[in-house]
Amino acid sequence: MMAGTSCTSNDSVKEAQKTNEAKADSATTATETGKLEEKKMDYDSEFLTKAASGGMLEVELGKQVATRAVTPQAKEFAQKMVTDHTKANAELKALAAKKNITLPATLGDDHTKVMKDVTEEKGVKMDQEYLKEMLKDHQEDVKEFTDASIKASDPDIKAFAAKTLPVLKSHLDMVTKMRPAVDARK
Fold first, then answer.
1. pLDDT at 2
2. Residues annotated as region Disordered (predicted)?
3. Are 43 and 153 in contact (CB under 8 A)?
4. Which residue range is the domain that position 106 belongs to?
5. Alpha-carbon distance 17 to 136, whole Å?
6. What does DSSP assign to residue 177?
7. 186 burial level (CB within 10 Å; 0-12, 13-18, 19+)
8. What is the pLDDT of residue 25?
9. From 10, 80, 117, 180, which residue has the greatest number of CB atoms within 10 Å?
């Protein structure tokens, strides 16, 4: 999924996932049951680490766009992202701490690129790029959170995904409706 990054990358998401894999390795036995439990733990921790990086992106990028946006749609959406994802991020951090899952401290490489692509733009072009990226991001988020609400092995992680899903769907609906008006601007 994150092709193109090298093994020597400083991608904080990958580093957190490696830490979680090491924890899972030491916590499971070499039995088939242990290997199955490890796979389940890997899915859950991978979901949380990616969600953490994505949530950080929503907040950090939202703050940048909220202060620099020229369209009311981009400004409104950015402010909504800061508010909603700050709350979700706090819940995610508490859940990860409870489950002894290490989260990335900074944006992953793919989210860093999105941040750079949006913030390098100015004016309406920035607003358009922001809403384009947020549309794509929320389409992916809805799919990943839907999957986790079904596939996560830990009931608390499954519940977090299910609880967060309606908010993400409302963001997707919101950006889908706002984007045409912003894209029409020159």
1. 36
2. 1-42
3. yes
4. 45-183
5. 24
6. H
7. exposed
8. 57
9. 80
Helix, strand, coil percentages in the chain from 3-state DSSP, rounded to 5? 80, 0, 20
For helices 32-68 and 12-27, give the axis angle rounded to 10 degrees. Answer: 160
Provide the pLDDT for residue 34: 47
Give pLDDT, residue 5: 35
* 86 torsion bin: left (phi>0), alpha (psi -120 to 50), beta (else): alpha
Neighbours of 161 (CB within 10 A): 23
3 CB neighbour count, 10 Å cutoff: 5
Identify the CATH number of the domain in which residue 108 sits.
Answer: 1.20.1260.10
Cβ burial of 124 (10 Å; 0-12, 13-18, 19+) is middle
Kindly provide the b/e burial profile for residues 11-34, where b requires at least 16 CB atoms within 10 angstroms of the residue's own CB.
Answer: bbbbbbbebbeebbeeebeeeeee
- Within a domain: residue 168? yes
- Which pTM does this prediction carry? 0.81
Task: Check residue 42 and give its pLDDT.
Answer: 84
Check: CB of residue 178 under 8 Å from CB of residue 73.
yes
Residue ranges of the chain whose pLDDT lies below 50: 1-9, 28-36
